[in-house]
Write a structure and sequence with these properties.
Length: 259
C-alpha cells in the first residue's frame, strides 16, 4: 500500500512539474504556437467549408480529436528532442522514476494544457466560420478513452526519439494518417475496402463515430463502448510492448544522445 501511495505521489509531482514547464515553454514560444494555430485553423476551415459541412453540428468533433491526438503523439518527440539538445536526457533516464512514468506524466500534462486551449480555439474557429457546434456530455468519456488508446502511439514515438532523436517528421506522418484514416475528412464508406478496414481498427475512428452519434441524440450501445475500450487497451498494450523492446534494443546497441 505504501509503495502504491509513493508511486502516485511521485507521479503527481512529475505531472505538476511538467504542467508548469509546458506552460512556461508555451509562453516563451508563443509566436510559434500562434502561427501553428493559424495554419491549423486555415486547414480546418478550408475542409469544413469546401466539403459542405458548415451546417453539420458534429463537424468539429473529428478536427478536434485529430488536432489533440496529433499533439499528444508529437509532443513526446519534441520534449525528448529538447532534452537531448539541452543535455538533460541522460539525467531523465537516471531518475528514480521510470521512463514510462515520466512519459505518462508528460503526456497527461500536454493533454490537459492543449485540450484546454483547443476547446477555446475550436469553439472560436467554428463560430467565426458560422458552423454550429453540437455537444453531448458523453463525448467527454469517449475522448478520454480515445486518448488512452493513442497513448500507445506516444510510447512508441517516445522510445524511437530516445533511440534516434530525429523523429518529428514521422510524428507528422502519423498525425496526417490519423486525419485520413480516422474519417475526419473522407467518410469511411468512401474509402477502398482495405483502407476502410484499417480505419475501423483505430480508436480515433470509433471515437469520432460515437461522438457524432451522441451529439445527434442517437443511443450508444454496449457494443460501441466495448469495441472502443478493446481498441484502446490493444493499442496501449502494443505501444508498451514496442516501447520495452525498442528501449531494450537501445540499451544493448547504444542510444544516440546527440541532437
Amino acid at each position: 500500500m505504501h509503495a502504491i501511495q509513493s508511486t502516485i505521489r511521485s507521479f503527481l509531482l512529475l505531472w505538476r512539474a511538467e504542467i508548469v514547464r509546458y506552460c512556461k515553454e508555451t509562453r516563451m514560444y508563443v509566436a510559434s504556437y500562434i502561427s501553428s494555430l493559424i495554419v491549423t485553423g486555415i486547414i480546418v476551415a478550408s475542409f469544413v467549408l469546401s466539403l459542405g459541412n458548415g451546417s453539420d453540428p458534429t463537424a468539429w468533433v473529428g478536427f478536434f480529436l485529430w488536432n489533440a491526438s496529433a499533439t499528444l503523439i508529437g509532443e513526446a518527440c519534441v520534449s525528448i528532442s529538447a532534452d537531448k539538445q539541452s543535455g538533460t536526457c541522460t539525467q531523465l533516464m537516471l531518475r528514480p522514476a521510470s521512463m514510462v512514468m515520466q512519459i505518462t506524466a508528460k503526456t497527461c500534462a500536454w493533454v490537459l494544457v492543449n485540450v484546454s486551449i483547443d476547446v477555446v480555439y475550436i469553439v472560436a474557429l467554428f463560430m467565426l466560420i458560422g458552423s454550429p457546434i453540437g455537444f453531448s456530455w458523453q463525448v467527454v468519456p469517449i475522448m478520454l478513452v480515445v486518448f488512452t488508446g493513442l497513448f500507445g502511439f506516444t510510447m512508441i514515438m517516445a522510445s524511437l526519439t530516445v533511440l534516434y532523436t530525429k523523429t518529428a517528421s514521422l510524428c507528422d506522418v502519423v498525425g496526417y494518417v490519423m486525419m485520413f484514416l480516422g474519417g475526419v475528412v473522407v467518410p469511411i464508406d468512401a474509402m477502398p475496402a482495405l483502407l476502410a478496414a484499417l480505419s475501423r481498427f483505430m480508436p480515433i475512428t470509433q471515437g469520432i463515430a460515437m461522438s457524432r452519434k451522441a451529439i445527434l441524440g442517437q443511443t450508444l450501445t454496449a457494443g460501441d463502448w466495448t469495441w472502443l475500450a478493446a481498441q484502446a487497451a490493444l493499442f496501449v498494450a502494443i505501444g508498451y510492448l514496442a516501447f520495452r523492446l525498442i528501449m531494450r534494443y537501445g540499451r544493448k546497441r547504444g542510444i544516440n544522445m546527440r541532437y
